[in-house]
Amino acid sequence: MSRVIQTLIILVVVVAVLQWFVPRWAADLVANELGRIDHGPRPSVAVTAVPFWDLLQGRFQDIRITAKQAQVRSLQIHQIRMNWSNGQVALAALAKGRLGIRRPGHLVMTIVLTGTAMSRFLAKTGSIVRPHVDVSPQGIRLQGEIQLAGTAVPLDMAGSLVKSANSQALIFHPHQIDGVALPVLTNVQLLNVASLHLPLPLTIDRVRLERNQIALTAGN
């Protein structure tokens, strides 16, 4: 075998190893950075960048992230599924623990929240005392107490969940309180995605209610 062919074989092997290693190294950096935001179990991260040297400039075709039982600030998220495509980050800064986004690309994220998590989140906001959120495909039921003139008044509301006009927040529309239909539409903000301080500004595209779960899809 000629020296040229041997050199080519070695080069191919080296490129193949780097193509395998570099995206995994970048995925590990991304997982470490997410750990600064998400204080739950370590997320699963997969990075696609072909050829791998594009990634050395921070460019990538796709980053897929899955996190379960994520803890973002005071909100516990049952599951996060994220697909980020055709973006670019500052890789040197990421290696030092700082996420700098050079090109946002296209990001789609699905967040699944449970009624229990929403109850705990609302309790921490302090607007409703001892809140309890029930979620079903038919709508939302919110129970708790509010303070009126220093007196705790029981509250039992049922209604629908929609996104706000600017697509930044989850809005609860009570249709009835204590079984009595409301003559005027009332809004109660349950969650604003801007309060999560995510690396990219996102807007809510869709809200879906399931049994004891709220699934919202957001993107940039």
UniProtKB/TrEMBL annotation:
Alphabetized Pfam families for the sequence: LmeA
Annotated InterPro entries: DUF2993
Protein name in the entry: DUF2993 domain-containing protein
Source organism of the structure: Sulfobacillus acidophilus
